[in-house]
Amino acid sequence: MTGARATILVVEDEPEIRRFLRATLDAEGYRVVESPSGRRGSIDAATHKPDMAIVDLGLPDMDGVEVIRRIRRWSGMPIVVLSARAHERSKIEALDAGADDYVTKPFPIGELLARIRAALRHAVRPPSGRRTLAFDGATIDLDARNAMRDGVEVRLTPIEFRLLAALARHAGMVVTQRQLLEEVWGPTHRDDTHYLRIYMKQLRDKLERDPLRPRHLLTETGIGYRLVADD
Amino acid sequence: MDWKRAWIGYAWAVAATALCSLAGMAMRPRFDLVNVAMVYVLAVVVVALRFTRGPAISTAVLSVLSFDVIFVPPQGALTVDDVQYLLTFAIMLGVALVISRLTEDVRRRARAQADLAVEAETERIRSALLASISHDLRTPLAVMAGASSSLAEHGEKLRPEDRAALARSVFEQAREMSGHVSKVLQMTRLETGAIALDRDWASLGEIAGSALHQLAERLAEHRVILEIPADLPLVRVDAALAEQALANLLENAARHTPAGTVVRLRALRSGGEIVVSVENFGGDLPDADLERIFAKFERGEMEAGGGMGLGLAICRAIVRLHGGRAWAERIAGGGIAFRFSLPVEEAPGIPAEAAALP
Q1: Predicted ipTM?
Q2: Rounded to whole angstroms, what are the CA distances from B8 to B50, B60, B235?
Q3: Is B326 helix (H, G, I), strand (E, B) or coil?
Q4: Residue B300 has pLDDT above 90, yes or no
């Protein structure tokens, strides 16, 4: 996406929030299309063909989750959700409906920008090419299936590696518990959340400098996990 | 469920009478009829104390009938040939009526008193809420209005560093206020039972890490020590709520202890529960405050750290929903520990995976 300016669709009913989003996104070099309602947003998503969408969950005319479903019927564009509700369930519902990430209002704008960058990067990742990522002395090569920490190979079990790879494929973005359980252990284990607690601890013990205060293998409590790597 | 309770009352009437009849039959060879009648009186008293007038009167009537049929000669037949037994009946009925009346009175008075207490508590909370809104929300609003109007009207004349500082203070105050508002909403939701626990296996290590991450900025000036044993069992909790309970304790520590001091977060298994503590060293609280500090809108007498006094109350409400306790106590060597406990359940197993990646 470097070069051409990415277009972002903002589906949000509050004009004041749209105003500051537009100002900030403009300043960051994005092109902004504003939609004041869910119905309008679903149409604008089709006519403007934006590179990604930011959707507020609390729209007056239509549940934001419904907007996500409508977009997902025909497009895989990244969708980041704005949620005023502290309730985890609505976020999970949005993520299950196909949203890629979320930000809880009120949010520092830096957080939203980071989510946008991660989402756009994920969308344009070339299908070929070596997939590696690095953070804080750790490097992970998804193709060679190995991980190093401070130049020393870290021995990961097959499940640990599959879990790390699932997070790495969505680097910077939240991955729900159910998504991880299905990807790593299979659909019959989608409720075995205790697997995740145990294996995430093992991964942190092996890869984080201070496993009790992780800075890269983060917990999104009640929702899932997020791998934050270097850009 | 009034009808259900009434139904139980009538069932008791029948059961108590039957029981007395059995007892009476056992007594009969050695005791006078008068004493047998006393046993029935006991049944009437018990039912009248526990239930309303209907079951009490039923017990009286059933008792007199049973007494007459079973014990008064000619046995096995309902005959009222002796004026004595009419008197027995009248007394039983009297006892039933008097006792149900007394019980009813006592119940009504207790209810009225409870209502009064609730009203007083509601009133106290309402005035505390108003006081806290006027202080804790008006101050940030004043700062935000002042700083932002200054930016809007004199933006170009301000030095860049002042401009940045004003903008930052608008953001910080807004965030603080948003925190207050969510706490008030959260407390209300917890109190009205509008929160359903979404329990799942959770790791306290993760919850602690995540709560610390959430409060990293607030605790940046403190020295945070984290002590969580590697073998601590998983807990079955609503992880988001548990994180909030812990974050509130940490926020309390950040707010009320001076920068540069130590805050220790630890979790320990102790018998059938896990105790999570946030400890600070140095400060002290009077005994009365230790007791009250987890109550709504209470803050320590001597503190001036701001905050609406809802954080600890929310922590306690969340912990209670999980079947745990929350309390504060002094620790040896000076300092206060804010603790909560969560019950331990046996976590399900996980298949072993021995092989490391070659």
Answers
A1: 0.87
A2: 10, 16, 40
A3: strand
A4: no
